[in-house]
Amino acid sequence: MKKGMKIVTYNVNGLRPRIQQYGSLPKLLDSLDADIICFQETKLSKHDLRADLVRAEGYESFFSCTRTSDRGRSAGYSGVATFCRVKSAFLSNEVALPIAAEEGFTGLLGTSNGYESRKDECPSIAEGLECFSRDELLKVDSEGRCLITDHGHFVLFNIYGPRAVQDDSERIQFKLTFFKMLERRWECLLHQGRRIIIVGDLNIAPAAIDRCDAEPDFEKNEFRKWFRSLLLQNGGRLLDVFRAKHPDRKGAYTCWSQSTGAEEFNFGSRIDHILSAGSCLHGEENQEGHDFGTCHVAECDILMQFQRWKPGNTPRWKGGRSIKLEGSDHVPVYTSLVEIPEVLEHSTPSLSTRYHPQVCGSQQTLVSMFARRQSIEQVISEERISPLFPSHEKFTSTPENYDSKASQIRVLGSRSNANILPSIVAKKKSRHGQGSQLTLNSFFQKCTRSETSDSSSADLKICQTDISYSQIDLNGVPSADDESGPSKDCRLNAIDNIQNEGQLDACDSDKEKRKVALQEWQRIQQLMQNSVLLCKGHREPCVPRIVKKAGPNLGRRFYVCARAQERVVVSPNLFMQQP
Q1: Hey, which residues does 335 pair with through a beta bridge?
Q2: What are the Cα distances from residue 329, in Å, to 205, 256, 320?
Q3: What top-level branch of life does the organism fall under (predicted)?
Q4: Nearest residue to 145 (alpha-carbon basis) of 196, 184, 182, 185
Q5: 540-570 residue pLDDT tens
Q6: Which residues in 395-427 are b (16+ Cβ under 10 Å) and which e?
Q7: What is the dihedral of CA 27, 33, 37, 40, to 10 degrees?
Q8: pLDDT averaged over the chain?
Q9: What pLDDT, in 10s, does the model give residues 95-133?
């Protein structure tokens, strides 16, 4: 089946402020309404890849972040991200879902595909770049400026080109090397018969028509000459898709200065591009007059509705200078493709953020932090009556989820590891009628859900319960209450042994107890950091904020409603501190 698809490129000038502007990541993505969305200048580090910033229902995402600290380009500088709108991330034949993904373009940062795992393979230099040293290649790839996703019928490059001012010789040389390497990678793929689509902020306005104040020698710049040499009309192999559709349009700019109010007078430049190269998918023997851009690109245009300054705003010369414009200094550019056939069935590559250690398995609510611990306790008593992977559990995530559950059952069901049980269940009965907690583990006891006929939703109550050792089922053996005679005596003896071991654990040194408590706090804070909280009033994802007022909470994170009006702090108890 052949379908159409839409690709958008957008320099967001910081992904965090754009998410805050739209209220949540899903709302930002939905506003662009595209199958593949390529962001540049995300300004996120590897440590910032939390669920609320990188994951959205119905999208697979891929990120590349800065890895260098040269000249102040530390974490949070540049960065690119690709979001792919898919119905399923597993066993899908959708073109939007990549069959392979690569961070960078030199091959040294690793490649992943959606067919099989390749973790045992060592990264190797990409074909065509062997003439460069590894140090040169790693330096170019260290700023998080490129993501490559292979969609079967074409290879998509998401690029954030370096910026180099006229008097900075070092950055000029870096930019030359960057594009020289990229060109070789493109040539190699085209030589192999692949089709390529290049999108992103290249930081190059190729011709005088693409710049508001172009001087007579504007087109003599070495980067502009290099760009134009790649185009079809100049003997190259790349098609400037926007200029192919709008060859004479003037004032078609995608970027404006933030400090001068240039948007009001459309004083900008066109540096965000969509390029394509390669044969069409029709397969005619005579390919003359047929290429990917001509046969499969239906439209390409600039989404001016995303511009910060809009008609009706107060002019700067009438007092509007003090008004801060919300949004990026760039606007998105899109292209629509047609007659794109489906590809073979595949799954999302391992580079997807769903497999990132800080994202995969993260909790969605604070309540789920307690419910997760409940499942560990329940698995002991349910192991006897339910299979390892119950039929009602739908495979919606990675196989590692099943491995994790299996390992829990193996640990809890092993007699040699029976001394782990006291760390899972409460060691002492809770003192009813007292508000104080005996241990940190008492926060993670069974959750009971009470429902009433008058209420449309259930209230989840966290309560302390004592789990008796006589109720714990090990290795499928019936509980002691159901046994009689010698078998019951043996069972009680086994339970006594477990209780004795628990008492020994209770006599551990204070140092060990403090270590356990510290680990618990770190685990809770990590879960909170990776969780996407919902506003209690609107049931919508919240946005994180940082306390900037001097005081004991300075620098701590809290969450508020994403709506512009009537913002409500979701949980004032999130100011947590290690004991």
Answers
A1: 7, 300
A2: 16, 6, 17
A3: Eukaryota
A4: 182
A5: 888 888 888 888 888 887 888 877 554 445 4
A6: eeebeeeeeebeebeeebbeeeebeebbebbbb
A7: -60
A8: 75
A9: 999 999 999 999 998 766 655 444 445 678 898 899 999
Q: Which residues contact 574 (CB under 8 A, 6 or more apart)?
A: 528, 556, 557, 558, 559
Structure tokens at 141: 């790839």
- Least confident range of 262-276, 357-371, 401-415: 401-415
pLDDT given for residue 498 in this prediction: 52
* Beta bridge partners of residue 544, listed in sequence order: 559
Angle at 262 between CA 225 and CA 222, to 5 degrees: 10
Q: How far is CA 227 from the centre of its chain?
A: 31
Contact, 242 vs 277, CB < 8 A?
A: no
Q: Which residues contact 14 (CB under 8 A, 6 or more apart)?
A: 41, 42, 43, 328
Helix (H, G, I), strand (E, B) or coil at 486: helix
- pLDDT > 70? residue 492: no
How far is Cα 196 from Cα 190, in angstroms, rounded to an integer?
7
pLDDT at 161: 96
Question: Residue 203 has what pLDDT?
Answer: 96
Decide if 97 contacts 344 (C-beta within 8 A).
no
Determine how many CB atoms are found less than 10 A away from the CB of residue 293.
24
Do residues 121 and 105 make contact, with C-beta atoms less than 8 angstroms apart? Answer: no
Strands 255-256 and 239-240: unpaired
**Per the confidence metrics, is the pTM higher than 0.85?**
no
How far is residue 94 CA from its own chain's centroid?
20
Pairing of strands 272-277, 196-201: antiparallel
Parallel, antiparallel, or unpaired for β 80-85 and 255-256? unpaired
Q: In this structure, are residues 260 and 179 in contact, taking their beta carbons and an 8 Å threshold?
A: no
CA angle (263 as vertex; 261, 264 as ends), nearest 5: 75
pLDDT band at 432; cut points 50, 70, 90:
very low
Q: Hey, which residues are catalytic here?
A: 330
Nearest partner of 44 among 52, 56, 53, 36, judged by Cα? 53
